[in-house]
């Protein structure tokens, strides 16, 4: 009695302590915890961009379902409400007032930005030719535009700078704001101050935009117009919501169903309540362990962790299902504890693989599962027996025993089944090669509709899909810019050779100090310019003194301090420079996105020959695929190590090669068959399938162990068979429900685990069933 | 000079024809029937003579050439005098070619409000496409069937910043004159005549 009381008190104290730790735990939603560690500089650059690059901060906004005039008014009203807020670094909707800031920047700095500024560019002959061109342009349909800039910029440096930006697609405008070609979508671009992975901040940003839009709609009186948003942060927030929602909804349904099954079988509310005690304690212990070990708990760890330790509900079922009548708890436990303990050890071995996965997300998940399962097992072992529960023997035992009859397959049949499964699985694995899917996009947790919206907005906005990048490194920001300038010639050669259609460079908006100095040195002094210009204008159709602003601006440019990066803030070029001139690990990189790459191999070969050393060509798609493959290979290796640990554990405990084989064979067959079924159904395997297969090993090992130790006959045997079948049924149901989720990640995990649970039960029954 | 005089004479004769009694049964001048009459113009080429007056220049700049239109979206302004220059629009694409300089530019109409003000006014008028015109301009009409004036006032602020008004004059289903008043006060006047072989 005192021992039972002690166990109960110890449990309550433990729960209280865990609850205290968990209550103070810091929960984060920083998705970068789930980004793998990068091995190469190129991958570091890529991961850095994914984590905090400008692309991750970009929100694409579309307004739809109203006439074009209303859409334009809404776009203006929305932009006005968002501009100037600290949460948004940059808001653009094509509005002239905003584009004006960009234009003013280019115009004010035209003499350091224009590649045309070189010695001889302002001598008499060049000026005369420039004025002739200006005259022709003035009489052309573009006259109104030319007229505005001609007096201050007769040599056309501003237009030359603009022409340098020409290759980039910009959206068309309607009534002064960006609008899709079919005039159904008004378009805005928003850069958030918070990085893309800060999901809480991004969620708040999305809510702000939503509020601003509602207010704008009231102001404009377009009540039916709808807001569309896309971008990496939107995806991340949406998928978090979808995962949360589905996990909540589906696990609630699963809990109801499992509870119903428990009630039906055990006819005891007390058993129902106590059956959840191990898993609940385990979850609490898992949270506390992760909070103590890492200092914070990731939201995803909590979600997936509870799924992973769902196995713990089986522990209570094993206990209650095989208890016979009024037998003391200690006696029941003597029968199942060794098996349960070994099953726990196997699960712990398989989950501990994740502890070493190399990045905090999976390591947290591993720690959560290991500690959670251990705590759940301890509760099952010492606390459940301490609470006296009177329950009739479970219903359905006889039926299950009939369903899984006395039949024990002869060794020959077992071998044949095993061989057939392994052979057919191997055949499928072979035929379906490659079996891995390392396309990052396929792991995208958002649905096809959201991806289609993103593509549509991106196309309308002319945002490039930035697949190819040339990275020019430098010790300082300026050195990286010089490296980018040195690439202009080789890349132009590639454009001429039609290997690429064009390229972008941060040096276009922010030339290196050296280039700026050279351009400034090419500007004539005021006296000389006045003399040359006077002679040229006298012979031209232009009125004298017309070009006084030109003389003044050249003098100002000659004396101006160097153009600094800070001057670009608040313009579209500031946004670009933030994206294309980045610092990673104490090195600066100028990134030059390439457009229209026709032949990647030819590009790589030509660039290697032309570009200076240190310059790297990045194929973002290939690089992210490689990154994921490395990461998956590492997970697979850890998985293998976990498997070896499981074999060692079994060998140590069972001390018989045959028994180890009897336990391992059904697990291996179940894993192989599950993989083969998934592949045959047209699914390529991903990291998430791998995690789900760990779960299959965890539950499958329990089934195999129980069947392998099946008591000779009678009630005990029937109860064990019943317990295993009941556990398999609840696992299949719970995960089968998860497979119905809209979220691909949950689908993968749910489907794999449900198929795996059925396969494990089947093969354990066929192969593992013991000595009879 | 002689050629211009002849163009004027032809213009006057055509105007006379337009004002002939055959037109008396026409409905009163209104946008819808005018647009319907304009829409009857098939594809074709006319000659133009343009005078650009600018505060920047000592004297107005004169030029001439041909204007070709093919429904619904192709428009080409081919300047022959004083220098060869081709300005061709197809949909949203503008190509500017100068054979003497061997230069060729391609740009998107939607990015150049000043050029668009010019293109859409002519394209919309020649097509008789009132909704298209109204997408870019406030449209007003005055005059008579034999001498109407279409006032096109840009509604797009970027366009309005550069172009104050496009004034198109004509008789019946024919466009005779296109005048562009820039916000700066500069103006260009284009008079249009049918080519001799068709006139």
Explain this structure.
The complex is a heterodimer of chains A (772) and B (199). With 772 residues, chain A is an alpha+beta fold. Among the domains of chain A are: 1-34 and 267-391, Up-down Bundle (Multidrug efflux transporter AcrB transmembrane fold), CATH 1.20.1640; 95-170 and 513-562, no CATH class. Helices cover 65% and strands 8% of the residues of chain A. In chain A, strands 9, 10, 11, 12 and 13 form a five-stranded antiparallel sheet that branches. In chain A, strands 3-6-2-7 form a four-stranded antiparallel sheet, sandwiched between helices. In chain A, strand 11 (581-584) and strand 12 form a beta hairpin. In chain A, helix 13 runs antiparallel to helix 15, helix 14 crosses helix 17 and helix 31 (714-738) packs antiparallel against helix 32. The model of chain A has no long low-confidence stretch (mean pLDDT 83). By secondary structure, chain B is an alpha+beta fold. Chain B has one domain: outer membrane lipoprotein receptor (LolB), chain A (Clam). Chain B is 27% helix and 44% strand. Chain B has an eleven-stranded antiparallel sheet, with helices on both faces. In chain B, a hairpin with a 2-residue loop joins strand 9 (163-171) and strand 10. In chain B, helix 3 (113-127) packs antiparallel against helix 4. The two termini of chain B are 18 Å apart. In chain B, 32% of the residues are buried. Residues 1-24 of chain B have low confidence and may be disordered. The interface between A and B is medium-sized, with 28 and 42 residues.
